[in-house]
Amino acid sequence: MMDYSILNAGKGVSGNYSALEIIRSCMLPLFVWYCLILLYRLTFHPLSRYPGRLSERLSDWPIVYYCIKGNRHIKQLLAHEKYGPIVRDGPNSLSFRSPEALKAIYGNNAHIKKGDWYLTLDISAGAPSVQMVIDQHQHALRRRVMSPAFSEKALRDAEPLINTTARKLCERLAEALSCTKDEWSKGFDLQVWIAYYGYDFISDLAFGRSLELLDREEHRFVPPTLRSASQFLYYVGYLPFAALVRPLMGTSVQDYFPGQSARDSLKYTDLANSRLAERIEREKKRKEGGGGAERKDTFHYLLNSRDPVTGKEFTVEELQADTSLLIAAGSDGVTLASCALLFYALQQPHILRKLINEIREAFPTVEDIRTPKLNGLLYLHACIEESLRMAPPKPGSLPRIVLPGGTEIDGQHIPAGTTVGVSHYVIHRNADVFPEPNMFRPERWIVGDGNSAEQLAAQKRAFCPFGIGPMNCIGRNTAYLAIKLALAHLFWQFDFRVHGDLIGGGSKKMEEGRRDETEYQMYDWIIGFPSGPIVQVRSRV
Ligand code: HEM
Known about the structure:
This protein is of the alpha+beta class. The chain contains 20 helices and 12 strands. It has a 5-stranded mixed beta sheet with strand order 1-2-8-5-3. It has a 3-stranded antiparallel beta sheet with strand order 4-12-9. The chain has a two-stranded antiparallel ribbon with strand order 6-7. The structure holds protoporphyrin IX containing FE.
């Protein structure tokens, strides 16, 4: 029989009332208080005049749900289509979609700071990564120390390393599929293989040794692990009680968070930290005279970076956080951009043919594939821009908070403390800027053919796959180089065709916003994770 003694314990203290009755009598005022908050959010709240879904105007929970499901970008697009240019997508949050708003929120003089959501990213690393630094001044200092690792010189040093990995991608693919000349291979998921390339090239740069996904099957747990870690970190940061959860993250308590994704997040950080420790050890040995020649990877630059003003270097914890960030930030974006391009080009054979011809004509032999010629391929560049427009690797909004005094966005005074953002996926589908936004048309990035220089300039103002302003992507040039090298090698070596149905697009059975079979589907877990296309290749050499 149940023991009610605990529940009745309060009786002695409060005379005639049991603990259950006390709890009940507290619940009622709490309930009334909560109802008043909801009423306030709909009536006297400063954002009450902005339209949006009722559930989002009332509560922060819908966004958590979207982040778990990976459809936040879809929900944001549908909301803008229904409610117009400014949407209230949380009790205290507004979403915008104009180029002017993009500049006002993320540009150099924006009167904003990063949202608290960032405090949860890379939390297990022992120090904040550059992306987690919220204070604008502190962020600028950190970025200054980091910038030599992303200079033109560093990029030139990185090119041979990335090029080697891009060649290896083709070699391993040919081996795994037993590719022969003039015969089509069996079907395979291109996304899986390009992800191996993405992780290998970026870990090679960050740790001086690749994670060897192209070489060894036993390391191939990394992409799904990071995917699930990313999913976890995305929604945890938006929990209304995130501030209470944060101190527990990165500790063994995380093992008890529900779902595999919390454990995966820890597993990934451990792996990154152990690779980094190896790299530091090797660097130490090299300096003591026992190692080989100096290797000019990103880590080399990070380790030797000093702030030009203060002389500050990175601490080991900061290096851990930043290298961990590099792997996550660099690999999946490159994978997504490359796969989206293939997905769209395979649906329009004239685009595929033009791209392949450009690459094969530019590079008579495989050894010729390198910059500066690679950067001169206009059609390849236009296809990449269009792929980044249609499938921006960070599709949802990056949250920013308006600073004291408020700010002006899209002609509206937005009060201090409001969370504001522009979803890359939504602005890239703004038909006022990009006519026929759902069409993959690389030509829109080339002046001529009915496309004026003014139009191109207007598009560029709304184009933001790497973010804009002082907190944008520091690895942008590395990303373009890695995408170009991968595609140039793949198209130089192989012919491509779709295997069976075009996998990776929407379907009539999916939720609203995902029913277009010709649109490459992403799951927004900080980075958009896709699957497919399933293709066949034929070696031409
Ligand atoms: C197509 C590929 C990529 C895309 C679309 C992309 C996009 C972005 C975006 C939108 C941000 C800003 C995030 C925010 O404010 O929350 C960012 C930050 C960052 N990205 Fe990338 N990225 C890509 C590849 C890379 C690569 C290859 C690297 C490294 C080599 C890299 C390193 C970083 C770093 C370190 C940050 C943080 C910068 C800071 O906070 O100051 N990214 N990226």
